[in-house]
Amino acid sequence: xxxxxxxxxxxxxxxxxxxxxxxxxxxxxxxxxxxxxxxxxxxxxxxxxxxxxxxxxxxxxxxxxxxxxxxxxxxxxxxxxxxxxxxxxxxxxxxxxxxxxxxxxxxx
Length: 108
Known about the structure:
This protein is α+β, with helices and mostly antiparallel strands. The protein has helices spanning 2-12, 17-28, 86-104; strands at residues 33-36, 42-45, 53-57, 75-80.
């Protein structure tokens, strides 16, 4: 029973292609993005911008308040630092970067 619980938790932790597609479509249409990510995290983009601030919460240790430093930014991603979700976060960030690079010619 315990294995099923772990497996279901790891499935929830993955940012899927559908969510990535929805996000990039909204950005391409010059719409804002406000999405809660599975497990923990948030993607917040007010409008098309040539940057994204990324904060990955360290896995296995406390980091009180650091995530709140980015909340005032117009484009940020808060995400857990677990290794199992790094590939899907990487795919999300690359898709956002490609979409914004098309609009601005560069992305940071």
